[in-house]
Amino acid sequence: MISFSEAQILAWLNPLLWPFLRCLALFAGMPLFSQRNVPMPVRLGLALFFAVAAQPALPPMPVLPLDSPPLLVLLIGQQMLIGLAMGFAVRLVFAALEFAGEVVGLQMGLNFAGFFDPATGMQGTATARFFGTLVAFLFVATNGHLLLIQALAQSFHAFPVGQEPFAFLRATAPQAWGAEIFRAGLWIALPIVSLLLFVNLALGVVSRVAPQIHVFAVGFPLTVSIGLLGLVATLPLMQVPLEATLARLLAGFT
């Protein structure tokens, strides 16, 4: 008769349980996978696949008893908070580009045409939605998902299971990440904003030199046209701030 002891079951279960919970929390907090159109069985399957496939890269997991409710709650909370923090870091990168789209749309005059975004449940604009879709493609095209998986595996070396469950809050300081939205967003939007500022200054000079020209009738289509041209010209340059911001936010977990 085949029998297993409690120590053997814990030795088999602990190396899979904690990576599974941390990866599942990551999928619950990051964009793309946290949307409603991604079924829960898909997230569970991917988290289990990561927990199994990443075993050679993970440090030895401590064999901890699972019959102690206080300790179990602390350890589950640690995995959930670290995974959610990593997902929040990726979401900040997406929010930075969407903020850049809001700033560009404001300068172009396109923020008047807002619409309801069912993905976020908030009011959105055309340029912000365009930048949000663009960053999703860039995230996959620049291997951002591979960088995220690597950071998730390295987080078990930086923040092991069981040792000071909430030490990562002091080491990573996620409360200061909000400044990255404005830093990266203004970095991306600055070329187009400068270009449109120059166009507005030129239109102001024209209105003073030739008052008979209706600047409001000419300025709006001219601003939109030049803004779209500047947007197309700066699209290849968005890869650098995206990779730099993502690497800076995930550096605390490696």
Molecular structure report:
By secondary structure, this protein is mainly alpha-helical. The protein contains nine helices and two strands. It starts with 5 loop residues before the first helix and ends with a helix.
Estimated helix fraction: over 70%
- Number-wise, the strands total 2
Structural class: mainly alpha
Largest beta sheet: strand ordering: 1-2
**How would a textbook summarize the main sheet?**
2 strands, antiparallel
Strand content: under 5%
Task: Let me know the average pLDDT.
Answer: 79
> Low-confidence stretches at least 5 residues in length (pLDDT < 50)?
none
End-to-end Cα distance, whole Å, is 45 Å
- Following the backbone from N to C, one meets helices and strands in this order, namely HHHEEHHHHHH
Bulk shape: elongated
* Continuous helix count: 9
How do the strands and helices of this protein lay out in sequence?
Blueprint: H1 6-29, H2 40-53, H3 69-108, E1 114-117, E2 122-125, H4 126-141, H5 144-158, H6 167-172, H7 179-209, H8 215-234, H9 239-250
Antiparallel strand pairs: 1-2
Helix pairs in contact: 1-2, 1-3, 3-4, 3-7, 3-9, 5-9, 7-8
Short description, anyone?
The protein has 254 residues and is mainly alpha-helical.
Name its key features.
mainly alpha; 70% helix; elongated
